[in-house]
């Protein structure tokens, strides 16, 4: 099951906390992943969870044992503690406690201390929702979105998520933001997506704060605002969000200030060493295009881009296409460029879609085709002031009425490529550009 599901508790201020998001943050503090190593911060998080109840204490011990936090790693003993947590959650759930029923469903979804069973998990989420658990409404929405233990149903997923969001669940608002951006279960609306992300971020969603940084950086659903973009990225980065850290580092790397550049470059290097795919993507862009304090290195860039491509990252496909189109470290080869752009486009990369549409519009690397040009440019969902939008409008203007109708039918019959099952932390965020350089 995907990690988008959540188990919750309420802290001393009665604020809902996602327990495994908090435990993962404690682990990052303990290992120094994406942030300085800080055992005091680790201990503070674990202590807060431990004192909630016997069930939560058992979850805490299970995680510590499974990950080797302050104790020897022992998966078997970790699972024993998860079994104890399941016992206490079950006792409380049978007594009508909605949160405990939700958390027991989570354990079945993940197979922690109990056999993994998506149908059983969904059943406990339903019971939890009936007993007033807002988190269970969210979890049911995610289940229907992915068809986990229930029939896949986007519209029913949206209904559950809206009910949770209306009850001030930030995770539900964050998912609705994603759905409005993708046009899944709802009509695509980037501005509505931005509104839901803003609601979620203000309520404490790290994922939404990172998404706002991206949206404000590229002008998606709101006017482009670099200062606000940096502010939201910093908020998410301080909570250990590696995507936000990678993009924040990208801003710093484009600064003419050498100190800021060095700070950003160090952040990127550290994130790359930890295997963060967003950081590798950003590093590849710098190595291709260069910045004030770093010359291009095409050989290193191609190696990194190929690594990204092997991982199935759409940005890697797109950047390889860029290198072949412009002869950056490789011979100019428009057919190869078009092939890489198409792979990126079909993986949902907006930059790949825009690049492929442009090639169809001018007939280089592919046969000239206004309908395919319009389709891919439109799939890139360009903002109204972007180059891709102007190219899309130019293609449509030169079409005859019959071709415009064919293009509209093709768009309706071929919706934008999806990116697989939904998961908050596994969303593939496409190319982030600071505006300093574009190709």
UniProtKB/TrEMBL annotation:
It comes from Thalassospira alkalitolerans. Residues 401-424 are annotated as: Disordered. It comes from the Bacteria. InterPro entries: Sel1-like, Sel1_AlgK, TPR-like_helical_dom_sf. Residues 401-411 have a biased composition (Basic and acidic residues). SMART domains: SEL1 (SM00671). This is Sel1 repeat family protein. Transmembrane segments: none annotated.
